């Protein structure tokens, strides 16, 4: 997910990099006013929480205390030097959309559910060692597996034992340097999910954990503590089912034109001289953007707002073939990042980090009609999981999309990303660049003091 990352650092870097006092003052004023959330529409529509095709009931299974579930097994080696997230595997050329939809419609349902029996729980990690081949086969077939009722994964220690028993190799988040996620337990390669109190009211739409450049092969999302006051369902949807569901004409339009996603906004005073605007653009492009490990282009006023500088990803296909199975799937983050959808649902992202999705050939934002078709087809196939302590959703990141509903109270979910463990060429030979750490931590700290509550900013 890309919502606030580049803009946070580019904002601060731009204001501090100028030695002349006047530009610095102008930019500081601009930034403070642009950080409040704003809609792209003069009369914002009513915000409605998205629906889901399936909503399993809660079972109220107990968990451990934070002191218990956060305990790491210090006898195990430190996984902090994990692999870099692998490069995205693109195979999107020459796709016949109608034939792709026919193929995708035959895919088995997602997620596949495995519920622990008493005997399974008594086996502990041995259950996953014994059933490794079956589990990996079902993951490839269905795109996601929901492990329910397992006691082993109620703690950081047990969660690590689970993925080690399955032979999965951890890697960094695709946007580790962005600071969007901090580690829950670095030595166990475990990131905290978006549990921040400041983002409780933000609905995270469907997305693959990917950029045009990097994509994790798999992920294991674990629940240690469900939201104490309600909500917080974890969302999962099958990229094959969405592809088959979408209106063919809309899908062909998006595939032929491709899409580009802006990941941040930096509002520069429109009256600023062109030479200064260009200087700001070049500064961000050269000094800041490369640190985010994404292929970005700095573009002015793509969304029509005067003076707005946006960091925009390269063009990508909304359809991709699965690297292993060849199955065509809906593989993109439009449901999460399209501004016309964000403006219509609970949103807690500051204006500086509001994203947009463009047709790549004209750099025009997606039409409302196309956005609403993406919404319809996507949400029809969402399963809003009632994940409780010990539950894990194991995801094939090229097949299944995920998200998160709003919640109240305190919630603690975490995630480990995995690289290709059976293909060294796809995995690459990059190990973690530890120097990214300070950058990650600085940006993550800034997330908490930016305004997040849309409704309070509007009233």
What's this, in brief?
GO terms for molecular function: oxidoreductase activity. The protein is α+β, with helices and mostly antiparallel strands.
Describe this structure in words.
The chain has 459 residues and is an alpha+beta fold. The chain has one domain: Double-stranded beta-helix (4-Layer Sandwich). The protein has 17 helices and 19 strands. The chain has helices at residues 5-17, 21-34, 66-69, 97-105, 118-123, 126-130, 132-142, 156-165, 239-245, 248-257, 274-288, 334-337, 339-342, 368-380, 424-427, 436-447, 454-458, and strands spanning 112-115, 144-148, 170-171, 183-185, 190-192, 204-207, 218-225, 234-238, 259-267, 296-300, 308-313, 319-321, 328-330, 356-359, 364-365, 382-385, 392-396, 400-404, 412-418. Strands 1, 2, 3, 4, 5, 7, 17 and 19 form an eight-stranded mixed sheet that branches. A five-stranded antiparallel sheet has the order 10-11-9-14-15. A hairpin with a 4-residue loop joins strand 4 and strand 5 (190-192). It is globular, with a radius of gyration of 22 Å. 50% of the residues are buried. Mean pLDDT is 85; it is low at 1-41 and 446-459. GO terms for molecular function: oxidoreductase activity. This is TauD/TfdA-like domain-containing protein. Residues 37-71 are annotated as: Disordered. Keywords: Oxidoreductase, Signal. It comes from Cyclotella atomus.
Distance between the termini: 28 Å
Strand portion? 15-25%
Task: Could you tell me the CATH topology label.
Answer: Double-stranded beta-helix
Runs with pLDDT <50, length 5+?
1-41, 446-459
Number of domains as seen in the coordinates: 1
Decide which structural class fits the backbone: alpha+beta
